[in-house]
Specification:
Elements lengths: L1 E12 L2 E12 L3 E5 L6 H9 L6 E6 L8 H5 L1 E4 L11 H11 L4 H10 L15 H13 L5 E5 L7 H16 L3 E6 L2 H4 L5 E6 L2 E7 H4 L7 E6 L2 H6 L5 E5 L2 E5 L2 H10 L4 E5 L1 H11 L3
Parallel strand pairs: 3-7, 3-8, 5-6, 6-7
Antiparallel strand pairs: 1-2, 1-4, 8-9, 10-12, 10-13, 11-12
Helix pairs in contact: 5-6, 6-10
The protein binds adenosine-5'-triphosphate.
Adenosine-5'-triphosphate binds next to strand 2 and helix 1.
Protein name: Branched-chain amino acid transport ATP-binding protein LivG
Pfam families: ABC_tran
GO molecular function: ATP binding; ATP hydrolysis activity
Length: 290
């Protein structure tokens, strides 16, 4: 089923055209990564899909309706932003109870959500005392109370360290398992590759790429990543069971990137950078983004 349809979608801010005639479709159950450099138009696109901005021309349909004017479409969408807007001095429980009551639900509807995302231990914690990664996770759980069919996330991992970023990525994978369609914008394309089904690349307001991740990358190389770490010796010790090759402070690894990141960070190794050379060659090249 088609969840989002854009046809010649154009957005102008005054005289400035931020998005030029974009056409694409998003199918139910996808995780779409919107990638592109700063100023590419990612936030503008997310806000058009969310119905927070009005298109200048062209068509945008979400669940077959115009998200700007159709309440039913808006009701099925949740938006997660880059920073927490939750009230800092309330507990997780207080915030969730308020939100639940807004949608005619009670805590007994919300508690299973917390359990599903392994967040029950934070129930009595104040928002201000949570780590940035956990705050973001709670924000995602919060966005699920209304039972959305589509979750939009605009740079949800900005300002997070690598371990927290993967915590958030795993939360998106869990959403997919619940049948929710997810659209995430980010400039960290390499990392998103490990969880996304599709990549939508934009640069300078123009759609450069929209395809499934599996057609983008040769299967045999798909799961090959380069991870730059602060302490190579520690990282090698933490890499038992993984197929690695070491060059300088860079480790080439084949396999599940999320598992590898967990293994390193749990042993105190700090990850400085992750890249996937195939992605960089094929996507960045097509985006004209160096
Ligand atoms: N309200 C606005 N008025 C005028 N121009 C705007 C407005 N919002 C965004 N723009 C411009 O539109 C272009 C796209 O901005 P947008 O925020 O969508 O890009 P982005 O890819 O999300 O960038 P970033 O990663 O830096 O947030 C940029 O050139 C930006 O300066």
């Amino acid at each position: 089923m088609m969840i989002v349809e854009a046809k010649d979608l154009t957005k102008r801010y005054g005289d400035y055209e931020a998005l030029h005639s974009l056409s694409f479709e998003v199918q139910e159950g996808s995780i779409v990564a919107i990638v592109g450099p700063n100023g590419a138009g990612k936030s503008t696109l997310i806000r058009l899909i969310a119905g927070m901005l009005k298109r200048t021309s062209g068509i945008i349909r979400v669940f077959g309706k115009d998200p700007w004017s159709d309440y039913e479409a808006q009701r099925r969408i949740s938006l997660v932003l880059d920073r927490t807007y939750l009230p800092q001095f309330l507990t997780v429980e207080e915030v969730l109870r308020d939100m639940a009551s807004k949608f005619g639900k009670t805590m007994s509807d919300v508690v299973p959500l917390l359990e599903e995302f392994s967040a029950s231990v934070f129930l009595k914690s104040k928002i201000k005392d949570l780590s940035t990664g956990t705050k973001q996770k709670i924000q995602i759980i919060f966005s699920l109370i209304k039972d959305p069919s589509l979750v939009l996330a605009d740079e949800p991992t900005a300002n997070l360290d690598i371990a927290s970023r993967f915590e958030v990525y795993n939360t998106f994978l869990e959403l997919k398992e619940r049948g929710v369609t997810v659209i995430i914008s980010s400039h960290l394309a390499s990392e998103l590759l490990s969880i996304s089904t599709h990549l939508l690349g934009i640069n300078g307001g123009t759609l450069k790429y929209m395809n499934s991740v599996s057609t983008l990358i040769r299967d045999d190389l798909m799961e090959e990543f380069y991870v730059v770490v602060d302490n190579v010796k520690k990282a090698i010790n933490a890499s038992a069971g993984f197929k690695i090759k070491v060059k300088g402070n860079e480790i080439k690894v084949k396999g599940d990137l999320a598992d590898f990141v967990r293994a390193l960070t749990s042993r105190g190794v700090r990850i400085l950078y992750i890249r996937n050379s195939i992605l960089e060659k094929s996507v960045m090249g097509e985006l004209g983004w160096k």
